[in-house]
Every structure is written in structure tokens, then in C-alpha cells.
Amino acid sequence: MFLGIQPGFAQWSAQNHAERFEQLGTMLRSPNVYRTASGAPGHMYWQQKADHEISVELNDDNQSIKGWQKVTYYNNSPDPLKYLWIQLDQNERAKDSNTPKTAESSINPRMNLRQLENILWHDLDLGYKIHSVKDMTGKDIPVTINHTMMRVDLPQPLLPGQKTEFTVDWSFNIHDRMSFIGGRPGYEYFPNDGNYLYTMAEWFPRMAVYSDFEGWQNKQFAGRGEFALTFGDYKVKITVPADHMVGATGVLQNPQEVLSPTELQRWETAKKTYDKPVIIRTQAEAEKLEKAKSKDKKTWVFHAENVRDFAWTSSRKFIWDAMAVKQGGKDVMAMSYYAKEANPLWEQYSTRVVAHTIKSYAAKTFDYPYPTAISVEATNGMEYPMICFNYGRPDADGTYSDAIKYGMISVIIHEVGHNFFPMIVNSDERQWTWMDEGLNTFMQYMAEQEWDRNYPSRRGPAHKIVPYMRSEKNTLEPIMTNSENIIQFGPNAYAKPATALVILRETIMGRELFDYAFKEYAQRWMFKHPTPEDFFRTMEDASAVDLDWFWRGWFFGTEPVDIALETVNWYKMDNRTPAEKKADEKKAFEREEDYISKTFNQKDVPQTVVETDPATRDFYNSYNPFTLTPEDEKAYNDFMARLSPKEKELLNSGLNFYELKFKNLGGLVMPLIIQLNYVDGTSEVERIPAEIWRYDEWEVSKVFAKKKEVKSVLLDPYRETADIDESNNHWPQQYVPSRFEMFKGAGGVRGAASGDNPMKRAKSKK
Ligand SMILES: [Zn+2]
């Protein structure tokens, strides 16, 4: 009977049962006493700690610095350590660096200067000079330098629970970050006034991370895969020209020694001002200093607690503004440092965006725990604890386009946002770019939309990842790819994971379950070192949503979403009486007869006369298939008598049954989001979880019973799934115009003028 069909039964016979819904199992690291199967830190979780005392002096005459540091390293691991590894990031820019050697290069018909410079590299004296590494008695400790990593061979193994202290004396020439060598730290020279603006990051020898999941993370720094860093406390003394303004990670310990009385007074006002930034050093004051160029020196002292890194900036060109933001019962100082070249944009937006970002991110994770959050204008974007370097400079006449303005706001949100991921939720960037960039880009998207509901966000909405998902298969890699090996870096490590999280939140889990689980992940791992497993597991553990298929498809796979609505069949239940049925059948038969007689000219067809046996003639004449027989009536009455009231009601409901068939053309399984548009002008959206694909990953059908009559059907009406071909999402079929890009022909300006990495150009030509 009609209620007896098992949904999905037919699919048991389907082929192609691959593994899209299998649990990740061995694809994830095993849980252990350090990291639980729930995704939380285990009962024996440990992490190392490294405290630093640093004295550094900036030489503004020859753009170099020299520093001395004392490192106190705590071995909280259960393992004795024979040696320690220290990161020497500056060596990535040295003459003998492997970075230019491992960059592919080729000759194009037209080459620009930057492409040639990348081939020629440089002859500058860059990279660290390590003058000494000593123990606390002043005795040299043997070290081995392997490019960007230095091994410190301890006199005896550092046992579990022990700490060791040593000092490092070093110096290096600061490079011009506006040159082809690039990078985030370095200096910018302003020829109009003859001054320098220094952004000092990756500037001191930093401890590598020793962890339960990686041992020493000593993969070389090649410029792209960022950092794995150990938490610790910092006391840093920075000596610079007396007229410089310095911004840094941590809290300034000696404001009365380095600020003027007027600046001190304004600083005190800023601490009590919550509604707008207070300018502490004005543009007019900075312009005066630009001309005078003091030869005196001043030492700024900063302390920072529980940070994984320390960065600073220094220039006499700096304007400085600040305002207070309430966070978890405490005040955070949101601040900006920028040269006059960044105005009027920066005094208007930067610090306000910093304050907005802290509030937006904190609401979804945890209260911002640090005392300051600083945005520095440095023509790029790079993050460090409490301080980041950002982009957004108007034209020389002070005018700016929307692209500059929104670009600036986006970069500030993004880089300030990095305080949460990875500065506090301290993932290993050298291995997994997506763990900080992907999560942060997702958070950035939400903060942008909260800043302005019509904010032109570049990344986040599902449909924005479509061009990437549609790109050539040999340029696609899983999100779970090492930072250094990613071909399409921005789409793979920023946009795709951010989009995946938007889809998880909006389409798969729903906001309530997602937000709780995401916050749980952030809180479990704040001030700790999470791995991808900890993220994947926590999101399931806190939501009761099986997401293995989602991680498998979106993070471990490269397939795109392309689901096609193949057919729609319309059925009605047969509730006619036998008499009505016979009448309908007769009508249909007569229609057919009529059709045949009109179609063929009977006169032209030779008639065959068959003589029928008289014994059977009567039977033929008396049999009429449209006559109701007593047997028909009895069968119907018996059937009706067996029906329960509920079954009778259903039989007479007049429901329309729509059988929709879907094909998975792209490979990536996703929920079916189906908009049924009715004849009466109304519509309705049905949401079918992705698990409908679990018996047959290529083809499924689904029946909807509706009182109303359906006029048309649209798959994924809100463009939530990143479907790469929307032309097969309509019933009846609709023709959707597609766009194509025009390129200049071979030898045209496209390659030569863009000024970016020649390596990438070479790749894209293959
Ligand atoms: Zn980033």
C-alpha cells in the first residue's frame, strides 16, 4: 500500500559508495593525555615558557640595530632537552638565503624591474650577526646556525621542570621594506622630509616552540609560513633618537621620562575618554620634529606579560592618538601611530576601528585580555601581540577612494583581530596558515558587517569563493596544506576556510550551536597551542553535530560544490472510486481513438477483414473494459474498509507530490536548500541535511508533499553553498548568463605591468 515504501530503500542498490561520510579516524592525530578526544587540553597538557629581558638601540644614521637579551627558558615538558632551537628570521633576507634559490623563475617576453630584482637578489649586508651566546657565568655556549634556525647546545640536558638562562648579543642592518626584498618589518624612507619610519618585528632571536605534537618546530622561515612562538613575559628597553615616538607590545613603564608634560596630560585624558580618540602628539608637533632631527637619545621601557612575541615601531614622524575601551571590567587603550602622509584618513578611522574590532571579536571569543591594542600605518598588514602594522594611505592631496578607505578599515580589523588568532589562541602558523588566517578572516567578515551593514566585504559570503573553487584542478589544494606549499595562498588559506566557517554557521550548524562551539574552542585554547584536531573535535564536541564529512570535504579535499536539480516529477494520489476511474480511462481511450482517426487517413489504409469464429464473437462484443464489474466494486469497498481514519484522510487530502532528483556533479556533498515557488505566488524553503547523500553520493531523490501547486523550483536560493554552476539549479530549466573575462593577448601588458612575483606568473602559464 502507498504508505509502505521505505524512503531511501532504492538507493541501497546504488554504486559509488565512497567515503564522504566516514569518520576522519586515522586522518587525525590520536587523542592522548595532552589533547583529549573532545578537543580540549588534556589532563597532562603542558607548554614551554620563555621570558625575555632585552636592551636594544636603534641607529637612525645607518638604519641598524644592536641588541642584548637574556632568555629564561622553562622546560615544562616531560622530556629532557639536550639543545634548544632559536629562530633567526632576519637570515631569511641574507645574501645566502634559500628563499630566492627556491623561488621558481623564468624569462618572459617583457620583464619589469621587480621581476629582475627577484632573479638577481641582492648584495646587501643583511641578516643577523650573532656576537655571542653565553651562560650566566659569561661562558660561551656552542651554537650551530642553519640559516634561520640556531641550535644552542646546552652544557647538560635541561630536565623536565627545570629552567635555564642564557644571553645573546646580536645586531643587524635594517632593510628597506619598500624595496623588492619586502617583508613586513624594516624601514620606510620619506625623501620629502628625509626621515625614517621603522616597524621592528621578527627583530630579536626568538625561541622556537617545543610541543607535544611537533617536538621542535624548526622548519625554516622562507618568508610566507609565519611563526610558531612560545609565550612568556618581556621587559624591553628601547633606545631611539630623543624626538622619536615609540609604540610597542606591552605597557610603557616610564611615560614621564619620554613624553612631554603636554603629552602626558593628553595621555591621562585619553585614558578616561571612551567616545573618541584623543590626539596625544599632533600632526603639527610631528611636522616640527621632522625638521629638527634631534641627535639626543631616549630610552623607552615596556613590560608585557604572557605574549608570544614583541614588536615595536619608532619614528619622529608619528602622530599618536588613543582612547579607552571597556573590556571585562578593565580598560584597554586603543591607539594609533601614523605619519602625516596617512591623514586625514587615519585620525578619522584607525583608533575607532581598533576599538570596534576588540568589542566585535571579544563578543564571540573572550574578553580582550591585554592592556593595549595598537594600529600603525606602515603601507602593509602584519600582526603582533597588541600591535600591528596596517595599510591605507590617501593620495598626496589627501583625497582617497572608497577602495582605500574600506581597504584600510578591513586591514585594521584583520590585523587587530589577529590578537585573538594566533596571538592568544596560539596556533602553529609555520604549519597551518588557515588556523589563524582562516578563522581571523571569518571573524573579520562579521566585524565588517557590524561596522556597516552594507560593508563591501571581499571574503566570507559563500558565492565569493566560487571563482577559486572553479579554478583549474591542478592549482587547487586542500586547506590542510603546509603554508609554504600553497599555490593560491589568499583563496586557499584565507577565503576558503573563512567561507567554510560562514557556511557552518549559517547553513550547517545554525548560529546558536556554532557560536557556542566556536567560543568554546577559543576559550579552551586561549594562551595555549591548539592543533587542527583540537578545533575539529571541539566544534563537534560542543554542538552534537557530526562534522567529519564537512572537514573531510572542505578542509581535506579540493572538490567544489556543484549540485544539479535534474528532474521534478509531479504526482497526485489516486483516490477515485472504481466508477470514476473507469470513466476517466474511457475518456482517455476515446481521446486516443480520436487522435488516431485524425492522424491517419483511413481511406488510404487497406482494410484487412478478419473473419472471427462465431463462437468467440459474442464474447468480444460483450466485453467492455470500461464497464464497472461487481469484482471491481468489492475490491474497492474491501480496500476502503481496511483503511484507518488517518489513512482515509490522507487519501482524500488532495496533496501534490513532487519528486525531485538531484545529481552531485562537483563531488563536495552539501545540504539541499530548495525553494518551492507556488502557483499562488507564495514560496517556501525546504532544508535537507547533507546526510541525504550518505547512501549514494552522486544521485538522490526527495519527495515533497504540498497542498499547493508548485510552479517552479530553485536550488540554493540564497547562494549559501558556493555552487560553482548555478545554471542547473532551476526547474523549469533557466538560462543564466555567464560572464567571461577578456585578457590581452600574448606579450601584452598583463604580466609585465602588474609587478608581482614572476614565479606565480610562470606557474599560471603552465
Ligand atoms: Zn592575517
TrEMBL record:
A GO term from the CC aspect: extracellular space
Span of domain Peptidase M1 membrane alanine aminopeptidase: 399-554
InterPro entries, alphabetized: Peptidase_M1_aminopeptidases, Peptidase_M1_dom, Peptidase_M4/M1_CTD_sf
Gene3D superfamilies membership: Neutral Protease Domain 2
Key words of the record: Aminopeptidase, Hydrolase, Protease
Tagged with keyword Cell cycle: no
GO function terms (MF aspect): metalloaminopeptidase activity; peptide binding; zinc ion binding
A Pfam family reported for this protein in Swiss-Prot or TrEMBL: Peptidase_M1
One GO-annotated biological process of the protein: peptide catabolic process
Alphabetized PANTHER family for the sequence: PROTEASE M1 ZINC METALLOPROTEASE (PTHR11533), PUROMYCIN-SENSITIVE AMINOPEPTIDASE-RELATED (PTHR11533:SF174)
Protein name (Swiss-Prot/TrEMBL): Zn-dependent aminopeptidase
Source species: Mariniradius saccharolyticus AK6
